Amino acid sequence: MPTYTDKRNALPLGVIFDMDGVLVDSEPFIARAGCMMFAEFGLTVKPEDFIPFVGAGEDRFLGGVAEAYGFPIDIVSAKRRTYEIYLDIIKGQLTPLPGVHAFLDACRQAGKKTALATSADLVKAEGNLREINLPLSSFDAVVTGLDVVHKKPHPEIFLTAAERLGLDPRDCLVIEDAVNGVAAARAAGARCLALTTSFTREQLAGADWHAATLADAPRAVLNWSEP
The dihedral of CA 175, 180, 182, 187: what is its sign? Predict the structure, then answer.
């Protein structure tokens, strides 16, 4: 677990949200889109092939599966086609995970700064949030996979989000659902709430708190002085 100094705030000043598996249950759709893309390219893959690469961004999400099969792809064209398929199949299908809007409202009412930090490209972020009626302007800062060099489990995305909020990452709560994301939050020095939408509590053991969805988040995630 990260070590915090006695001078840290008793309250998080910022809340940094991952997107897939935190705000929307999009993982089955992007895996399906990846399978469809590979089929067009002449390779049959399975949705479970993508699991090790969840949270690492679509370059690694697709590239890792291609490597596992020894199948060369042009990642730029593969990702572009995957996003085209994805944006088509999510129309009218995506809904916010339980508690998303209420939790964001609670953050605003408590005066927290908020950031979206997703390893996905901007086109996917815009498509997802449009489907759940949550514009990018809902957040004080937005960081996508196009804004960082190193993807999760590297902490760059969360360090960048904290910087854009004008905050020390130790004063931020990161909300994640993936093993790679929890590792990145810990490496950034932030506290972490892990949602068990994609992985089990045991797999996400490195987080400070766990919940099924944001609707079930313990009060302590927004008030660190509480047990």
Answer: negative
Q: How far is CA 71 from the centre of its chain?
A: 27
Average pLDDT over residues 47-73: 87
**153: preceding bond cis by omega (within 30 degrees):** yes
User: pTM for the complete prediction?
Assistant: 0.84
Of 6, 20, 88, 147, the catalytic one is 20
Residue 140 appears among annotated catalytic residues: no
pLDDT in tens, 83-127: 999 999 999 999 999 999 999 999 999 999 999 999 888 999 999
The CATH number given to whatever domain includes residue 78 is 1.10.150
Q: Which of 18, 25, 171, 208 is catalytic?
A: 18
20 assigned to active site: yes
Tally of structural domains, the chain = 2
* Nearest to 126, CA basis, from 213, 14, 26, 16: 26
Which pLDDT score, from 0 to 100, does residue 58 have? 77
DSSP characters over 41-56: TT----GGGGGGGTTS
Q: What is the CATH number of the domain that holds 116?
A: 3.40.50.1000
